């Protein structure tokens, strides 16, 4: 009895709906994984600590200025000036421009100028240009072509503006 | 082509620190151009042009300019144009400008001012700046 009542209550359009319905879940099944995944990424990206240190990976090329009040690790390619508290230029990294900060550690290639209180050139470093420093450390094997002078001395005294010549802005 | 993109997204686990992901921290300001086929997470301030494979604009991050990417996830503030195959806009995002996309997801509560034109796949393929290896 019950089932009959329902059958009579249901309008004639019901079977038409039923025909449409099987098509829909299929569409959704195809669409939801595409939408769901980026949303997952979204939540995990938000939970990441925002104070993560800056890192330019080897695949990244930056043309322009970088400025930070914190530390930067550079493994990629930079054409432009870098200013940060501590700059670490990894082996394989290339920088064309002025690198300035409190502390600069170079294991990669720098063409330009370094201006920092503490400068460290490791054995794999290749530095073409001037180094203005308070404390300088050069490991055996490092390549350096340029003037090294302590901070506070006369600027431009025999310095070659390699950075200006070669940095492409 | 779509499936290939998703497979790649699946392989990269978010929690594992991937060596190829560039992270631009909160204190970092960049004025210029960013170029990579890899992934960039931005929590700082970027003004300029960004050509990346995958970009995540984190909460607190701000980008002004044009983005060309395969995949973009916005959680921060953005002003400009996005040309991305696949765009996700999180609730915390504040967006002003245009988003050229093929697939898009917009979360409730995201603030959006502008247009979001759909484009066919070949639009992104002919963009030139878009990485060819999708």
Q: Can you characterise this structure?
A:
The complex is a heterodimer of chains A (169) and B (134). Helix content of chain A is 27%, strand content 42%. Chain A is of the alpha/beta class and 169 residues long. Chain A folds into 2 domains: 2-47; 54-166, no CATH class. Chain B has one domain (21-121). Chain B is built from 2 helices and 8 strands, in the order H-E-E-E-E-E-E-E-E-H. In chain B, strands 1, 2, 3, 4, 5, 6, 7 and 8 form an 8-stranded parallel β-sheet that branches. The termini of chain B are close together. At the A-B interface, helix 3, strand 1 and strand 2 of A face helix 1, strand 1 and strand 2 of B. Strand 2 of chain A pairs antiparallel with strand 2 of chain B, so a sheet runs across the interface.
- Poorly predicted sequence stretches spanning 5 or more consecutive residues of chain B: 1-17, 130-134
Largest interface: A-B, 38 and 45 residues
**What's the story with the biggest beta sheet of chain A?**
10 strands, parallel
Report how far apart the termini of chain A are: 84 Å
Radius of gyration of chain A: 30 Å
Q: Identify the quaternary structure here.
A: heterodimer
Which strand-content bin applies to the residues of chain A?
35-45%
C-alpha Rg of chain B, in Å?
14 Å
How many domains would you count in the coordinates of chain B?
1
N to C succession of SSEs of chain B: HEEEEEEEEH
- What does the overall shape of chain A look like? globular
List the helices and strands and how they pair.
The complex is a heterodimer of chains A (169) and B (134).
Chain A: H1 2-9, H2 14-20, H3 23-47, E1 54-56, E2 61-68, E3 71-74, E4 77-79, E5 82-89, E6 94-106, E7 109-121, E8 126-138, E9 143-145, E10 148-150, H4 162-166
Chain B: H1 2-11, E1 21-24, E2 28-35, E3 39-42, E4 45-57, E5 62-74, E6 77-89, E7 94-106, E8 111-115, H2 121-125
Parallel strand pairs in B: 1-3, 2-4, 3-4, 4-5, 5-6, 6-7, 7-8
């Amino acid at each position: 009895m019950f089932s009959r009542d329902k059958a009579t209550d249901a309008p004639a359009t019901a079977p038409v709906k039923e025909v449409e319905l099987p098509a829909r879940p299929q569409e959704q099944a195809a669409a939801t994984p595409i939408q769901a995944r980026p949303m997952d990424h979204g939540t995990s990206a938000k939970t990441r600590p925002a104070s993560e240190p800056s890192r330019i990976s080897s695949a990244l090329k930056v043309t322009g200025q970088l400025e930070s009040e914190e530390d930067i690790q550079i493994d990629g390619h930079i054409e432009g000036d870098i200013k940060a508290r501590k700059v670490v230029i990894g082996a394989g990294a290339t920088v064309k421009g002025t690198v300035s900060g409190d502390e600069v550690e170079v294991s990669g290639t720098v063409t330009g100028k370094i201006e920092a209180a503490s400068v460290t050139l490791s054995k794999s470093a290749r530095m073409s240009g001037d180094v203005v420093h308070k404390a300088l450390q050069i490991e055996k094997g490092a390549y350096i072509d340029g003037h090294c002078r302590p901070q506070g001395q006369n600027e431009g005294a025999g310095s070659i503006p390699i950075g200006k010549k070669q940095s492409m802005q | 082509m779509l499936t290939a993109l998703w497979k790649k997204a699946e392989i990269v686990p978010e929690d594992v620190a991937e060596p190829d992901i560039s992270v631009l921290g909160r204190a970092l300001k960049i004025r210029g151009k960013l170029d990579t086929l890899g992934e960039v997470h931005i929590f700082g301030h970027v003004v300029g042009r960004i050509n990346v494979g995958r970009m995540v604009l984190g909460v607190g991050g701000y980008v002004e300019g044009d983005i060309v990417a395969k995949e973009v996830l916005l959680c921060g503030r953005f002003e400009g144009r996005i040309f991305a195959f696949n765009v996700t806009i999180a609730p915390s995002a504040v967006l002003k400008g245009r988003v050229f996309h093929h697939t898009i997801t917009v979360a409730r509560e995201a603030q959006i001012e502008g247009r979001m034109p759909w484009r066919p796949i070949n639009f992104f393929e002919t963009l030139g700046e878009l990485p060819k290896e999708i």
